[in-house]
Design brief:
two-stranded antiparallel sheet, 8-stranded mixed sheet, DUF1501 domain-containing protein, alpha/beta, about 35% helix, globular, about 475 residues, Alkaline Phosphatase, subunit A, 2 domains
């Protein structure tokens, strides 16, 4: 939605008026004007009563409307396939065969199973399943940088700042799902990340709190089983003993940190005792023919693990095959250019994505699982002298499938060079509003910052993408 589409008279506009940071402190009909004598007396009395400003903010936060969960939802789970480095729209889903050679690149388009839609010749399996996919060709990435923060948070205010505070404290969509939806099965984590480099490819909870950080799924394999020589009953007995000691300790120290620690410990006990987490992460439980079907590549193994986590009850999974893998500047860099770098990657990527979609559908999970395929931005229209493309934030392409997404469609369009949005401009906030709506989370709700200020889940004039409903 463009800035010109924002109208305070419509429902969407009213949501954002009530959800702005200014509205958090705007006087209501029963409030007293700030700065008046009565305001001074009331705030002074609050001070005498022992209520500091942070406490007043906390009270206001408790009364503020936080995000609500609807009983109506289309997605129980989300799998975000993160293409770290930024894939080239011109060499995947938005080819320009009529453009000059230096723009159109070395690949040719092929017709898909849906009349009128063409994609790259090196994505034949996606082409054959195009009725399952929606292609977005008009996603605005100008707020993004070489970082997962903006699009994993689906928030234009969540940016790379290079001051060890990237993201500005705004939470990722996975962390929001973990807080407001939680896992689909008790004892499972709500948010799991599958990435070799968590720091580079995964954005977490921000100021939402450590409890909603993603579980590092690459390191989790084998960590949730019962220790050798320890039975379930023995661990339960130890847990009961620990609780007795903790009750004694609480009489001396009733700090919130202690209560939080106890909650973490209990969740860890539940995960170990149930055995569900250990089973979900054990790919050896999968029949060999299914493992062979996905393939023994990083992308294949993580795709299979993502499907197992959905089955086990995890709500949000973000996976990345390798850090910077799609950053095809040219043959002088690690990942190479378009011909030597991107071309060899596309068959494995094509196979992995389509195998995941097919497997989810065969198991009856696709209708309740939203699959997103995207990176942090697109690539420049002009091929470099070393057969690469530079970073490009004005536009990028992405895929969506499952959870009621109507397949076989293209949303938006770029100009003849593939470098600027020509139709249906969309942004990170629109993506966030779509994901939250699919999960049954009110996209116009709020989360509470540490200081107590209600903060909108979705920033700016954004709305669920109607074509994906």
């Amino acid at each position: 939605m463009s800035q010109s589409d924002f109208n305070p008279e419509n429902t969407h506009g009213r949501h954002h008026q009530s959800g702005s940071s200014f509205a958090s402190f705007a006087p209501g009909s029963d409030l007293i004007r700030s700065g008046s004598r009565r305001w001074f007396l009331q705030t002074g009395m609050a001070g005498l009563a022992g209520l500091s400003l942070p406490e007043l903010l906390r009270q206001k936060a408790q009364a503020a409307p936080q995000a609500q969960i609807s009983q109506k939802y289309q997605a129980k789970s989300v799998i975000m396939i993160w293409l770290s480095g930024g894939p080239s729209q011109l060499d995947t889903w938005d080819l320009k065969p009529q453009a000059p050679k230096e723009i159109r690149g070395p690949f040719n388009p092929i017709q898909t199973s849906v009349s009128g839609i063409e994609i790259c010749e090196h994505l034949p399996k996606q082409a054959a399943m195009m009725d399952k996919f929606a292609i977005i060709r008009s996603m605005d990435a100008t707020a993004s940088n070489h970082t997962p923060t903006t699009f994993q948070a689906a928030n234009p205010k969540s940016r790379r700042t290079n001051d060890n505070r990237d993201g500005g404290g705004y939470p990722s969509m996975g962390s929001v799902a973990a807080k407001f939806r939680g896992p689909n099965v008790p004892g499972m984590p709500g948010f799991v990340a599958l990435a070799d480099s968590m720091a580079a490819d995964i954005y977490g909870a921000g100021h939402l709190g450590h409890r909603y950080e993603p579980l590092d799924g690459v390191k989790a394999a084998g960590k949730f089983g019962m220790p050798d020589g320890v039975t379930s009953s023995r661990l339960t007995d130890r847990d009961a003993l620990r609780r007795q000691f903790d009750q004694m300790r609480k009489h001396a120290d009733m700090s919130s940190d202690l209560a939080l620690q106890d909650r973490y410990v209990q969740e860890a006990y539940d995960m170990v005792l149930s055995g569900n987490v250990a089973r979900a992460f054990d790919l050896n439980k999968e029949p060999q023919k299914i493992r062979d079907k996905y393939g023994d590549s990083s992308f294949g193994r993580k795709s299979l693990l993502a499907r197992r986590l959905v089955e086990a009850g995890v709500t949000f999974i973000t996976m990345s095959d390798a850090w910077g893998h799609w950053d095809h500047h040219g043959d002088e860099v690690k990942w190479g250019g378009i011909t030597k770098g991107l071309k060899p990657m596309l068959p494995s990527f094509d196979h992995g994505v389509t195998t995941l979609i097919s497997d989810l559908e065969e198991r009856g999970l696709l209708d309740s699982t939203l699959v997103l395929v995207l990176g942090e931005f697109g690539r420049g229209p002009v091929i470099t002298k070393t057969d690469g493309r530079g970073h490009w934030t004005p536009v990028m392409s992405m895929l969506a499938a499952g959870a009621g997404v109507p397949g076989g469609q293209v949303i938006g369009a770029t100009d003849r060079r593939g470098g600027e949005i020509a139709e249906r401009r969309l942004g990170p906030g629109d993506l966030g509003a779509t994901v939250f709506s699919k999960l049954g989370i009110d996209p116009y709700g709020h989360w509470i910052k540490p200081g107590g200020r209600p903060t909108p889940l979705v920033e700016g004039p954004s709305a669920p993408i109607a074509e994906l409903a």
